[in-house]
Design goal:
Blueprint (H helix, E strand, L loop, with lengths): L2 H14 L8 E5 L4 E6 L2 E3 L8 H12 L8 E3 L5 H13 L7 H9 L12 H4 L4 H26 L7
Antiparallel strand pairs: 1-2, 1-4, 2-3
Helix pairs in contact: 1-6, 3-4
């Protein structure tokens, strides 16, 4: 996986794991083949830089018609709380008998509606868990890619958007 693909997947992971009640909305514009985010009425690119006025105006116009085919903009779906829990429990099922297994399962099951996953804090839970972090990051990105491919198949965006 290239650095750009990894960056895109991390951005999508952030978008897809944002709390359901978060005010920002994450989008993909199939016309420009770019992702962007709307925060309090202001549009930002993937680097969190405010879009130039001309580009923002065009997107705002097309966002008004997001439910029409002419818009070519789709909102990135968010994982709900149960989906976040399921992803983490699936990951943990591959590490039965690991140190702090019960604690990790409990953390996953008590996932809050917050940014990211409870398991993102593996190293903070116990430094002995740091070797798992790389496996978790790879699993998380592959899972986001899976959800995205499912989503893109439904709406017709090519998966070669990276």
């Amino acid at each position: 996986m290239s650095d750009i693909e990894r960056f895109n997947l991390y951005w999508l992971c952030h978008a897809m794991t944002a709390p359901v009640a978060a005010i920002e909305q994450y989008y993909y514009d199939s016309l420009t083949k770019k992702f962007f985010v709307e925060k309090s009425g202001i549009l930002f690119d993937m680097l969190d830089l405010q879009l130039i006025p001309a580009e923002a105006e065009d997107l705002i116009k097309r966002l008004r018609d997001i439910d029409t085919e002419a818009s070519r903009i789709v909102e990135i779906p968010r994982l709900n709380l149960q989906e976040k829990v399921s992803v983490q429990l699936l990951f943990l099922s591959k590490f039965q008998g690991i140190i702090h297994e019960e604690k990790l399962r409990l953390e996953a099951e008590q996932q809050k509606d917050s940014y990211g996953f409870a398991l993102d804090k593996l190293e903070a839970m116990d430094p002995a868990l740091s070797p798992m972090l790389e496996y978790w990051e790879n699993f998380k990105l592959k899972t986001v890619q899976f959800y995205l491919e499912k989503f893109t198949g439904i709406i017709g965006i090519t998966s070669k958007m990276f």
